[in-house]
Design goal:
Layout lengths: L1 H34 L4 H4 L4 H9 L1 H10 L2 H19 L5 H27 L6 H29 L3 H37 L4 H15 L3 H14 L8
Helix pairs in contact: 1-6, 1-7, 1-8, 3-6, 4-5, 4-6, 5-6, 5-8, 7-8, 9-10
Length: 239
């Protein structure tokens, strides 16, 4: 239960960041218009490739999630979109900005394909979980202008990309650690279940001993056959 709740928290944070990142530029462009000498109307079209990537990137994002792991793709989401956001803060021309925003859009496309699947996996009733997760996504939309405007006024438009990017990378590292710990615990539990009654090497040794003794003179064969049927039924052979 604790594992599922913590995973749900990470997915909610991811949904918040997902919508936040795709809308940072819409507010930061107000400052860029003066820094780059372009009007707001001239800057906004450079965000279009990013929104297109945000839409069509869902299909290529879903394929590796099915072939690899959903959790692994969410780590790629957190680390990738955070890194691209920091790279965006280094853009010096509108063309560089457009390329970086496109990369943000590609990584942002991962969430709705993969994150929502993680939210509902294992649940019989998914309505409440999706509703709560949707609230976090909507809050990302609602707070994008507020947070971006605050950072732009406080330290400049570049920090509006750097700070959320750093938060996403830290979240990705924490989520990676969470996934690794969960898999380690699962492997340990599975190993304990397999070796809980009788160690595999010992069972193999006993089976080998039975097979060898079965080819000995008849008294040994009879004794081994009886012992095998009572103690090691898996080693017995049909016919």
């Amino acid at each position: 239960m604790q594992k599922s709740r913590l995973s749900f928290v990470f997915m909610n944070v991811g949904h918040f960041l997902d919508h936040l990142f795709v809308l940072i530029f819409a507010t930061a462009a107000l400052r860029l218009s003066s820094d780059w000498g372009l009007s707001y109307a001239e800057l906004i079209p450079y965000a279009t490739p990013g929104f297109i990537a945000f839409g069509i990137g869902a299909i290529p994002a879903g394929w590796p999630a099915d072939k690899w792991t959903r959790e692994g793709m969410m780590v790629v989401f957190f680390l990738g979109i955070g890194t691209c956001s920091i790279l965006t803060s280094m853009a010096d021309t509108p063309l560089e900005m457009a390329v970086c925003l496109t990369l943000i859009g590609l990584f942002a496309a991962i969430y709705h394909t993969v994150g929502l699947a993680i939210v509902v996996q294992g649940l019989e009733k998914t309505g409440v979980a999706l509703a709560v997760n949707g609230i976090f996504g909507n809050m990302g939309v609602a707070s994008a202008a507020l947070l971006t405007g605050f950072l732009v006024d406080a330290t400049g438009w570049r920090s509006a990309f750097i700070v959320p990017g750093a938060v996403s990378i830290v979240t990705g590292v924490l989520y990676l650690r969470f996934v690794q710990m969960d898999r380690t615990a699962t492997l340990t539990t599975s190993a304990g279940a397999v070796t809980g009654t009788q160690p595999a090497p010992f069972r193999s040794l006993c089976c080998f001993a039975y097979s060898a003794l079965s080819f000995s003179p008849p008294p040994w064969a009879v004794w081994c056959s009886r012992a095998q049927r009572s103690a090691f039924p898996r080693c017995s052979t049909s016919g």
